[in-house]
């Protein structure tokens, strides 16, 4: 047998056959009488199938030559789980800050950034060496960075979306969430003003309502920067390395509840 | 966990587990040729995880890997006569294998492992309908989608609404439901695909499979997601609002379930939901034992014996 088949729950009950014979239908020659369920962890305890390994090795060789290059170093591990569950996390702050820093090199008049939704941040970023592959796995999508100029009323809807969804990756923005609503919103150092327009850095995916994001309907202007979100992240890691620094992030209370 | 146990006991109580009377010793019965065993193996949200997660200190380091999964599947196939290997979608996206090769590697590996069928997840649209279509020649297994109408797209005729597998006299009907694409997938990437109500479609197809086409078991591959705080349609909603589905193999929410959940369906029978996390970290298995019925059989949906085992 494959496993020790330790039975955790065995539920047996006997009922008269008469009950069975009284419930009548006859569409099939077989009747389901029992189910057994089990789950196998796929880990180091299982020897690999060499035929399957050979199927992907040529692809792996091509991939490794491009992807295993170390482009920088991280001062700390940043977890996806905390970015899924907390209003701000090291990983969401790094993600948002890095894209904003890189985008501001191309457009200096960005007010704030929400470059992705929480769902768009895909894996942990480890402490130590960072490879091209780490960034591809963090941001596998081909999304382009865009700067949307939106009316204050639409910005309000975006802030409400961020609050209702218990925080999203943001930079240049501070807010508190009270009763699922945004309060004490500060953008780029100034209190939020619904009467003015805001220039928001995001992705084409998010600006098209991806993950049901609100606030980007009918923007006054939508400018495509010509820089993918992933490339902004790659550039940030490379820039820090060139400066002799590690990448890092802080929890600074930008979103609290 | 506690909730699951209670729920299961309720089934036994309310249903009376008539079937157990016939399943006193399935192994003896199998030897006599009266019991047929079917083994369902399943994955979901593998997300291009070809190699195990890298050993870099992150949460899932060292877990998963297609070469190990293939070895495990091979071992089970050597032990069992009737195996179906199924996937609930999001085959694509998540590692550079997809970015560089567009899904070719994933499809070739699933073919090598002998997958019998898969449905489409939202990320399988990430390179557009064209990007998915381009990889189909590498997939030697059907893509089953019941609530996406691709009639006005490139994928017309490339997927099937359901498929019936025959194993040692058993008929197993498999169909697939996908999540609403609007708001989740870029419009350019799904084009003129029409999303149809998954509950209505599931009821229609499950009835067709069970009643009209005499399937002994009906399996739904679902990329709807296990459950939501909102009223959004999920596997739990699907299970409770349909009849004739025996097993929902779920995905999308990357849920690691302690044990499968058994839901009382619309006609009072059991619909089981199972989902095994993501990235091929686990392989799910459900074995069903069927007894050849001599004379009249119990009505479909009668309770049966359920054991959850530990690997």
UniProtKB/TrEMBL annotation, chain A:
The source's superkingdom equals Bacteria
Q: Which residues form the 5'-Nucleotidase C-terminal domain?
A: 70-213
> What residue intervals traverse the membrane?
none
Any one Gene Ontology cellular component term annotated for this protein: outer membrane-bounded periplasmic space
Q: Name one GO biological process term.
A: nucleotide catabolic process
| UniProt-listed Gene3D superfamilies | 5'-Nucleotidase, C-terminal domain
Pfam families xref list:
5_nucleotid_C
GO molecular function annotations of the record? hydrolase activity
Protein name as annotated = 5'-Nucleotidase C-terminal domain-containing protein
Automatic annotation (TrEMBL), chain B:
Organism of origin is Pedobacter psychroterrae
Q: What SUPFAM superfamilies does the record tag this protein with? A: Metallo-dependent phosphatases
Keyword Transport: yes or no?
Answer: no
Give one GO biological process term: nucleotide catabolic process
Name this polypeptide is given: Bifunctional metallophosphatase/5'-nucleotidase
Task: Give the UniProt keywords, A-Z.
Answer: Hydrolase, Nucleotide-binding, Signal
Q: What are the Calcineurin-like phosphoesterase domain coordinates in residue numbering?
A: 38-255
| PROSITE patterns referenced in this protein's UniProt entry, alphabetically | 5_NUCLEOTIDASE_1, TAT
Q: Which InterPro entries match?
A: 5'-Nucleotdase_CS, 5_nucleotidase/apyrase, Calcineurin-like_PHP, Metallo-depent_PP-like, TAT_signal
Q: Which residues form a coiled coil?
A: none
Q: Which family, according to the similarity comment?
A: Belongs to the 5'-nucleotidase family.
Q: Which domain of life is it from?
A: Bacteria
Gene Ontology MF, one:
hydrolase activity, acting on ester bonds
Q: Which residues form the signal peptide?
A: 1-31
Q: Does this entry carry the keyword Signal?
A: yes
One Pfam family in the UniProt entry: Metallophos
């Amino acid at each position: 047998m494959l496993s020790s088949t330790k039975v955790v729950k065995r539920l047996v009950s006997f009922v008269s056959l008469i009950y069975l014979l009284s419930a009548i239908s006859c569409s099939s020659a077989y009747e389901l009488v029992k189910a057994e369920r089990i789950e196998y962890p796929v880990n180091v305890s299982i020897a690999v199938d060499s035929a399957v390994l050979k199927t992907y090795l040529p692809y792996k060789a091509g991939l490794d030559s491009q992807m295993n290059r170390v482009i920088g170093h991280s001062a700390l591990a940043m977890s996806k789980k905390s970015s899924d569950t907390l209003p701000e996390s090291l990983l969401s702050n790094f993600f948002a800050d890095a894209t904003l820093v890189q985008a501001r090199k191309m457009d200096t008049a960005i007010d704030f950034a929400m470059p992705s939704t929480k769902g768009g941040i895909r894996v942990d970023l480890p402490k130590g060496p960072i490879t091209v592959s780490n960034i591809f796995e963090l941001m596998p999508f081909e999304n382009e960075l865009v700067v949307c100029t939106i009316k204050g009323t639409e910005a309000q809807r975006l802030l409400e979306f961020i609050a209702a969804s218990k925080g999203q990756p943001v930079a240049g923005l501070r807010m508190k969430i009270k009763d699922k609503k945004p309060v004490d919103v500060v953008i780029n150092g100034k209190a939020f003003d619904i009467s003015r327009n805001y220039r928001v850095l995001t992705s084409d995916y998010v600006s098209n309502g991806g993950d049901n994001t609100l606030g980007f309907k009918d923007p006054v202007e939508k400018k495509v920067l010509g820089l993918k979100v992933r490339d902004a992240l790659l550039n940030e890691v490379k820039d820090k390395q060139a400066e002799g620094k590690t990448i890092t992030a802080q929890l600074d209370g930008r979103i609290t509840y | 966990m506690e909730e699951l146990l209670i729920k299961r006991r309720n089934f036994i109580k309310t249903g009376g587990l008539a079937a157990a009377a016939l399943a006193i010793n399935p192994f003896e019965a199998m030897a006599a040729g009266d019991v047929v065993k079917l083994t369902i193996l399943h994955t979901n949200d593998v997300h291009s995880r070809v190699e195990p997660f890298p050993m870099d200190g992150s949460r899932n380091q060292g877990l998963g890997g297609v070469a190990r999964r293939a070895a495990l599947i091979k071992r089970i196939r050597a032990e069992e006569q009737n195996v179906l290997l199924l996937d609930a979608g999001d085959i694509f996206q998540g590692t550079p294998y997809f970015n560089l090769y567009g899904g070719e590697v994933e499809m070739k590996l699933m073919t090598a492992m002998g997958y019998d069928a898969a449905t489409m997840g939202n990320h399988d649209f990430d390179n557009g309908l064209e990007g998915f279509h381009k990889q189909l020649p590498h997939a030697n297994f059907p893509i089953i989608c019941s609530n996406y109408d691709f009639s006005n797209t490139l994928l017309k005729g490339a997927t099937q609404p359901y498929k019936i597998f025959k194993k040692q006299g058993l008929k197993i009907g498999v169909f697939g439901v996908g999540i609403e694409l609007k708001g989740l997938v870029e419009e350019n990437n799904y084009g003129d695909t029409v999303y149809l109500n998954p509950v209505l479609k599931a009821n229609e197809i499950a009835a067709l499979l069970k009643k009209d086409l005499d399937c002994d078991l009906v399996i739904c591959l679902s990329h709807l997601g296990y459950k939501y705080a909102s009223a959004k349609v999920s596997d739990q909603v699907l299970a409770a609002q349909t009849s004739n589905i025996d097993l929902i193999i779920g995905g999308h929410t990357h849920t690691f379930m302690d044990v499968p959940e058994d839901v009382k369906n619309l006609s009072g029978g059991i619909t089981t939901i199972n989902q095994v996390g993501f990235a091929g970290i686990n392989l799910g298995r459900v074995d069903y034992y069927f007894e050849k019925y001599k004379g009249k059989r119990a009505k479909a949906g009668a309770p049966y014996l359920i054991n959850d085992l530990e690997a």
